[in-house]
């Protein structure tokens, strides 16, 4: 317990550093909308302290304390109005709650950080229980400093890690554990969508552990889907137009600099073409589905050799496919991957290389945006900024390909793969012929 307390204390320090890093962009002046000044946008890129939390204070009616989704919608040009934000409903509620008692973007950043910090601490606790000292990767990890309060990702990371914790630490039946884990993944879907992809490997795990347990696998799917529906239906009934607008915003999102994916950096000169944009809307999800199917199939081959379906490793590989092939690859998505570096025993070289590439991408992209906005030459031959950005973008992409394979061939670091065995049902009191209980 003392080791876990130290782990959480270190995480608290890291989270504080993460907040301090983003708070450099706040104040010292504020305009009539509570926006920091002077030169907020330029300073946030130049000093690499930009956060979506602070940036979205103005433009989504967050500063007006409008409850999300109920009264809003999306215009023909893709602009959201009436309190609608481009995130699933539970994240929208967190955003609204963080803005309730404040009137500036600085206050919003602070209150949002206070709301999300407990989720970061919970992740540290669960990872510590699962993988012991390896959880230091989370507790003192550079991505936590860079991204803990970049966007609203700590709650969704917590939902995914909690599902693993429930499956591997609860002293309950497989049916109960898998049902609760599926509910947690359903809640994750209502926060940031990506935990939904882990439902399939969890289904396969339950199916194989239960001896071709179709009912158990379907129960996992139903629990996750039912949770997602229960959370979303009230918002859809209260204001269908506003609720649907968040999904429409993402479906209409163009491949551009804001998406920061390989689709932009690899096909940058084509992004102004409608045909290219329409093609990516098909190619990107299609390739993601192929990567998911490949990961699940390789996991099945491993199950046939070992007798256990590696659902955690398959989930990690599927996330690599998602990060690489989705048309959006925001910087803070590294927080999604970081717990799998803790839970799966990949070589330290993979981890160090990915964190270095991620740091180069993060610092490079914001410095590059600053140079572009200021009209300063920012080409690959004009200085190290663009070079660091390309090292980060393509180094990260190559590493995701390698990690896809590495995760699928690795073992977990969970120091006891299964919880304590279930207590067997009481035997029949009828004595056997030899006088003993059978």
From TrEMBL:
GO molecular function, one term: hexosyltransferase activity
Transmembrane segments: 80-101, 108-127, 147-167, 179-208, 220-244, 286-303, 309-325, 337-366, 386-408
Keyword Transferase: yes
Record bears the keyword Cell membrane: yes
Record keywords, A-Z: Cell membrane, Membrane, Signal, Transferase, Transmembrane, Transmembrane helix
A GO cellular-component term linked to this record: plasma membrane
Signal peptide boundaries: 1-18
Compartmental location: Cell membrane
Pfam family membership, one: GT87
Mode of membrane association: Multi-pass membrane protein
Recorded superkingdom: Bacteria
Family affiliation: Belongs to the glycosyltransferase 87 family.
Name the record gives this protein: Uncharacterized protein DUF2029
């Amino acid at each position: 317990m003392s080791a876990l307390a130290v782990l959480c204390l270190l995480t608290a320090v890291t989270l504080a550093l993460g907040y301090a890093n983003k708070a450099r962009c706040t104040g010292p002046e504020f305009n009539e909308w509570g926006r920091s000044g002077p030169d907020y946008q330029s300073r946030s890129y130049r000093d690499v302290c930009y956060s979506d939390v602070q940036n979205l204070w103005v433009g989504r009616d967050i500063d007006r304390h409008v409850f999300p989704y109920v009264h809003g919608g999306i215009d023909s040009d893709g602009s959201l109005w009436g309190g609608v934000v481009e995130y699933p409903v539970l994240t929208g509620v967190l955003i609204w709650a963080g803005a309730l008692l404040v009137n500036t973007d600085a206050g919003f950043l602070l209150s949002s950080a206070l709301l999300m910090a407990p989720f970061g601490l919970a992740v540290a606790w669960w990872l510590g229980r699962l993988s012991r000292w390896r959880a230091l990767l989370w507790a003192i990890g550079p991505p936590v400093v860079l991204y803990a309060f970049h966007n609203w990702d700590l709650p969704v990371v917590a939902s995914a890690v909690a599902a693993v914790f429930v499956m591997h630490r609860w002293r309950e039946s497989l049916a109960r554990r898998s049902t609760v884990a599926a509910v947690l993944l359903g809640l994750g879907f209502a926060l940031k969508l990506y935990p939904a992809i882990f439902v399939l490997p969890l289904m396969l795990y339950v199916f194989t552990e239960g001896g071709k347990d179709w009912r158990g696998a379907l129960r996992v799917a139903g629990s996750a889907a039912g949770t997602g529906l229960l959370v979303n239906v009230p918002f859809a009934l209260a204001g269908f137009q506003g609720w649907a607008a968040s999904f429409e915003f993402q479906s209409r999102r163009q491949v551009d600099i804001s998406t920061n994916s390989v689709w932009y950096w690899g096909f940058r000169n084509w992004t102004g073409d409608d045909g290219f944009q329409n093609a990516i809307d098909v190619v990107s999800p299609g390739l993601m589905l192929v990567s998911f199917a490949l990961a699940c199939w390789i996991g099945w081959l491993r199950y046939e050799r070992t007798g256990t379906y590696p659902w955690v490793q398959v989930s990690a590989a599927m996330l690599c496919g998602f990060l690489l092939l989705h048309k959006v690859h925001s910087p803070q998505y590294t927080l999604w991957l970081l717990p799998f570096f803790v839970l799966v025993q990949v070589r330290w070289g993979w981890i160090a290389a990915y964190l270095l590439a991620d740091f180069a991408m993060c610092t490079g992209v914001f410095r590059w945006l600053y140079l572009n906005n200021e009209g300063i030459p920012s080409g690959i031959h004009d200085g190290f900024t663009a070079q660091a950005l390309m090292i980060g973008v393509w180094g990260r992409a190559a590493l995701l390909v390698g990690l896809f394979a590495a995760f699928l061939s690795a073992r977990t670091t969970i120091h006891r793969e299964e919880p304590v065995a279930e207590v067997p049902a009481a035997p029949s009191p009828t004595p056997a012929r030899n006088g003993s209980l059978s």
